[in-house]
Amino acid sequence: MVDPSRPHPYQPGAVSLFFVAKAGVFAAGFWVWLLVLVLRTSSATGLHVLAATGAITTTLVGVVLGARMALQHSAAVRHAEVKKLLVDISWNAFAAAGNAESTGKVVPFPTAPGDGDRAGHRPGIDRVSVLDGGAGARDRSDRRR
After folding, report:
1. Which pLDDT value is given to residue 17?
2. SS (H, E, C) 15-31
């Protein structure tokens, strides 16, 4: 459950609920129509088939839309929890970096390297193509060991 002091996460809104309710109303209408037709006549006609098809189709559409709305709701809650967790982690890391001089088990984040420190710009390092199967590839694999 989301803490009430925090903003509420995105929830599937009125549009999703409208379509679920609309499918439910149509399904109920078709089921009632089918029930009335079955009780009034003894033989099956084209209207019976139409009412049964409409009842089954709108019921399935309502179930699928309802399941989709429920999945969207649970995904929105999970997303809000992940965002909250990321904010807490970043805040704790920020606070830990400020207390790096203490004797606790806090590892401060490394500072960002300058543009000249990037691997592609270092002098003296050979770049070897991945597709190159020559001696350079063997040398590179030896360096990793």
Report:
1. 87
2. HHHHHHHHHHHHHHHHH
DSSP state of 121: G
CA 55 distance to own-chain centroid: 32
Distance CA 115, CA 68 (A): 47
Residues 6+ apart with CB under 8 A from 15: none
CA nearest neighbour of 29 among 69, 64, 67, 62 = 62
- pLDDT of 61 above 90: yes
Q: Is residue 12 classed as helix, strand or coil in its secondary structure?
A: coil
pLDDT digits (tens, 9 = 90+) for 3-34: 566 666 566 677 788 999 999 999 999 999 99
